[in-house]
Design brief:
Elements (H helix, E strand, L loop, with lengths): L4 H17 L11 H12 L5 H16 L18 H15 L32 H16 L3 H17 L13 H13 L9 H17 L7 E2 L9 H4 L5 E4 L5 E8 L6 H11 L6 E6 L8 H14 L3 E6 H11 L3 H14 L5 H12 L2
Parallel strand pairs: 3-4, 4-5
Antiparallel strand pairs: 1-2, 2-3
């Protein structure tokens, strides 16, 4: 065994669990129903019985790497035993902490109910409470020892922990007085990071909405206008009656300005034509199509011709641009760019499409400034 093999295994199983979960709230597994039920008991007590969770994961990882070891003999002082605590302290608990999973301060073995110098079998005397948890714990230990399901068990637990974590709210950093160039850099990193969960395409929408929350207060053009609440990520414009991801109406509740936001998709001629279909029956004054991928260079002339045609037959100024260029321009119009950061973070905290890893990445970016 190389020194880093346990870390590689844990990271590999974690990445696979992240892919399996995505944005779902259900664990995907082909384990037998009775094993799933036992693991569900362990997950349900993962916050108040962190030691049990840690010992299960440690035992499964160690058994996979050392199939010859009877992992029920969890201490070196037990005949034919191994030091589960040492292995946990070195690999498992640090990993759980890094992923923001329930974890002990140093090791799962630092609890009286789990540190008894006797094997984890049906005669184990440790006072694990409630009894249903003790039964689940010992049954899963037995499965780990007598099967080759170690990775499937870890995957099931990781998926459950990821789903629980996704449902948590975490405090997000709100830096102030950042230079515009740095704000743009931060946003680009946040938008374009490789995420396992769905929802990344929502990030530039929230950023543009956050800037409009500032502009509506500061720009004379928007005096008397209303920025409509941002809609659900899954709401189709055709069903909701909206003509864009972001919409401003006038005092007669008529569309005044709208924005369609794309992530990772170049603005091409078809997108422009599709946008016109959305607003052709309205009297909207300006319509923006903004994308993190910019404009398709091969279709620039066709796009400009179509924009001119729309202007002539409808009167709307249709504007296409990259997200970065637009944000750079808009931020320069603000009295205080910290207001934009405040708005963006609040949207990250409250938007249901944004998952834990999107929020965690934001904090990571800010902490690395």
């Amino acid at each position: 065994m190389t020194e880093l093999k346990p870390i590689f295994l844990l990271e590999e199983l974690y990445d696979e669990a992240m892919r399996l979960v995505g944005s779902d709230v259900n664990i995907k597994s082909e384990l037998a129903t009775d094993i799933k039920k036992q693991l569900d008991v362990i997950l349900s007590h993962s916050e108040n019985a962190k030691g049990v969770l840690t010992v299960i994961i440690t035992s499964a990882v160690y058994k996979f790497i050392h199939p010859e070891q009877d992992i029920r003999n969890h201490q070196s002082s037990i005949l034919n035993g191994y030091s589960g605590r040492t292995f946990d302290t070195k690999y498992v608990t640090p990993f759980l902490k890094e992923k923001n999973f329930p974890s002990m301060a140093e090791s799962g073995w630092l609890t009286r109910s789990l540190e008894q110098k006797t094997p984890y079998d049906e005669n184990y005397p440790g006072a694990i409470r409630p009894n249903s948890l003790k039964s689940a714990f010992l049954n899963i230990i037995d499965v780990i020892q007598h099967s080759e399901l170690q990775n499937e068990i870890i995957s099931y637990l990781f998926q459950g922990l990821i789903i629980k974590r996704n449902a948590q709210n975490i405090r997000l950093a709100k830096p102030v007085d950042l230079p515009i160039s740095l704000i743009i850099k931060i946003l680009n990193i946040h938008f374009n990071n490789k995420y396992f969960s769905e929802g990344a395409s929502r990030l530039p929408v929230l950023a543009i909405y956050a800037i409009y929350e500032c502009l509506i207060q500061e720009i004379k053009r928007f005096s008397g206008k209303i920025l409509l609440p941002i809609e659900s990520h899954t709401s189709a414009d055709t069903r909701s009656g909206r003509i864009g991801d972001i919409e401003i109406i006038d005092n007669n509740e008529k569309p005044f300005e709208a924005v369609e936001v794309k992530h990772g998709i170049e603005i091409n001629l078809q997108l422009v034509k599709d946008a016109f279909k959305k607003f052709s029956t309205t009297q909207v004054k300006r319509y923006y199509i903004l994308s993190t991928a910019g404009i398709c260079s091969k279709e620039v002339d066709q796009i400009n011709n179509e924009i001119e045609r729309i202007k002539n037959i409808h009167g709307c100024n249709l504007i296409v641009n990259g997200i970065e260029k637009s944000l750079n321009y808009y931020l320069r119009l603000l009295d205080n760019t910290s207001d934009f950061i405040q708005n963006y973070v609040e949207l990250l905290e409250n938007d249901v499409a944004i998952k834990f890893e999107h929020k965690q990445k934001w904090n990571e970016i800010i902490s690395n400034l």
